[in-house]
Amino acid sequence: MPATTPLRTLRPESRERGCLLLSPTGDGASEAEEALGRRLLDILAGAGDVSSSSPELLVPADDRPVAEALSPARANGLRTLELPPDATVLEVGCGHGALTRYLGERCAVVDALEPLLPRAEVARARTGDLPSVEVFVGNLDQVPARPAYDVVVVMDAFESVGGGSADREPYVAFLRHCRTVLEDGGALVLGWSNPVGVKYLAGAPDERTLRPFDSLEGYALGARARTFPRRTVEGMLVEAGFARHEVLGAFPDVVMPRVLMSDALFGESDQLATGLPRFPSPDRSGPRLQLADEGLAWATLVAAGVGREFVNGFLVLASAGEGPSLWPRDRRAALLVADRQPEFAVRGEVCEEGGTLRIRRAPLYPERAGAGTQHAGVRHTPAEVEPIAAGRELLQVLLEEPQRRPELLRRWAAMVPDGDWAPVDLLPHNLILSDDDELLPFDQEWSIEGYDRDSVLLRGLFLTAVQLAFRTRPERLRPSTTVGELVGVLATEIGLGTDEELIARFCAHESAFQAVVNTTHPTESERREHSTADLRALFERPLAIVRGGDRFDVQWDRARRDIDGLYAAFRESAESHQEAVAALRAAADETERALAESREEAAALRARRPAAVARRLVKAALVRARLLRRA
Question: Residues 6 or more apart from 606 whose CB is under 8 A from it?
């Protein structure tokens, strides 16, 4: 394997901020981009560990751009691939270096290319201790068009290639250049978002324009970047010279995927294709209109046999000639549980073995495996191999057959043992109702010492209430309107009393557990404190808010009722005002008549009586007309 590449032999004109410039200018970044770069550099400078699985970089940042730039989950898509350790890699559009860092740890040589200098500087800072990595400021067309790389990675950068143009040629030319710099048998790893992804169908705003439905409408109002449907990109790949390719569907998106699914999975297991993604997908560019329910829409698309066309993101593995696949043929899906402390993060693979689907699990970060054994009272023992049980998820049965809910929940409660070590994953959302009506547990990872049985039961009911709120419209769960109310109803159905003492005990157990596992705050004590507050708040949360808020039709009905109420109040006020005006006018007319009569009477008196008598009479008349108060 050569220690250099044609790109490294170009003798770039200068080095700036640690990066090699492929042209005299390599910038054009906005002030906001510069400011973000400085903040990320400060964080990296203060971190002792900047590796791709660094727990220091899991500490929540003060806003979303910082958190997403540093998150180890950015490399999730690559973690599912079988990248050769001796590979020479070109990464196009490396951004702030989250993927670059992983590639540098995994592969022999990495050339990272980024057009914006502030981003490239961060990528260089994140990979400064890796001699195999070089960061360049420039574009793909500045890379010598000669075969030199075993892998080319383009993740979340393809959309910007044509500057928002709908013309295919810039994108085909880009892919053709990628094909040209690949060695025979090399692979292109191309990730992009699906313009008809289910989250966009459900009303999520487009990340490029911040407008809902823009990608569905072909960016009718214009955009600086655009994305394309699967068939369009597949055609571009063929036109660019890639004879073979494999498409993986990504959820919640291709930027930080949690699930990758092959086409084969959709043909073999609707159960898994429907159940592996979590919904709703996070909205990275702002809140969405609550239109169709994303999870329910996804289940319908899968049942209709068109799910693979409506995944939220695509990861394509395109081959330049004959070579080993980066995605094993027997693998149907990959599931990455990364929202934990690194030693507890897990990678699962759904594999086909002799006509049977099984899930294989391993540490997501092998270099940190075993570190969790130091936590007293917490055992993390996920099954290395587990068959996929055929049937329906218990939660879905509870929704589809509500009349069976008490019976099924009581059967679950009878399965929960009473012992020193509690199986806290033995919960309704981890049960399958088999075709022969048997409850089968799956995904049993955790045992916690001292977590008493009633608290485990309450944990199951609490998480069931939350999951039911996520999975369906709140109208179906009435009369309950909050999580706590629904927990109370479910507890009554299994005969569990939910007094304040039990709720407090459950919150104490659960916050202690979450303090060991989650990544929400820097220290365990902070995580425990915030977890307790979050649990208490979630008990009070309306079911509609759990799933993102009331749907648009509900909001519209409410707004229409409010508008109708305002119109009714306005009409009532107008009618009352008209009545008051009429009364005033009648009083004024009466006053004018009385005054006229008084004037006539006064004139007559002046002509017939002495002046003093006339004044008294006039005064009396004015009093009668209420124009003068009686003395």
Answer: 614
Antiparallel, parallel or unpaired: β 244-251 and 259-262: antiparallel
Contact 425, 415 (CB under 8 A): no
Evaluate whether 468 touches 489 at the Cβ level (below 8 Å): no
Q: Is the pLDDT of residue 2 over 50?
A: no
Close Cβ partners of 346 (under 8 Å, ≥ 6 residues apart)? 336, 337, 340, 361, 362, 363, 364, 382, 445
Q: What is the pTM of this model?
A: 0.86
Q: What angle do CA 110, 156, 285 make, to 5 degrees?
A: 135
Helices (H), 181-229: 198-201
509-565: per-residue pLDDT in tens? 999 999 999 988 888 999 999 999 999 999 999 999 988 776 666 666 666 777 777
Please give the Cα distance from 206 to 192 (Å, whole number): 13
CA dihedral sign, ordered 233, 237, 238, 239: positive
- CA 96 to chain centroid: 21
Average of per-residue pLDDT across 559-582: 80
Q: How far is CA 103 from CA 59, 74, 99, 210, in A?
A: 22, 12, 6, 31
In the beta sheet, which residues pair with residue 351? 331, 358
**The two three-digit tokens of residue 174, written as one number:** 């880009």
Give 370-389 pLDDT, tens digit per residue.
765 568 899 999 999 999 98
Beta-carbon contacts of 122 under 8 Å, excluding residues fewer than 6 positions away, are 37, 40, 41, 44, 69, 96, 97
Q: pLDDT-based confidence at 610, cuts 50/70/90?
A: low
67 vs 61: CA distance, rounded Å: 5
Q: What is the dihedral of CA 401, 406, 410, 412, to 10 degrees?
A: 30
Query: Residue range 134-154: average pLDDT?
Result: 96
- Secondary element (H or E) of residue 567: helix 552-608
Query: 581 pLDDT band (50/70/90 cuts)?
Result: confident
Give the 3-state DSSP-derived string for 10-28, with helices as H, strands as E and coil as C.
HCCCEEECCEEECCCCCCC
- 145, 111 Cβ separation under 8 angstroms: no
Structure tokens at 195: 């313009």
Task: Write down the residue that tokens 């394509």 correspond to.
Answer: 316
List pLDDT tens digits, range 208-242.
Answer: 899 999 999 999 999 999 999 999 999 999 999 99
Q: What is the chain's length?
A: 631
Summarised one tens digit per residue, pLDDT across range 401-417 is 999 999 999 999 999 99
Please, what is the end-to-end C-alpha distance for the chain in angstroms?
118
Could you tell me which of 118, 72, 120 has the C-alpha nearest to residue 99? 72
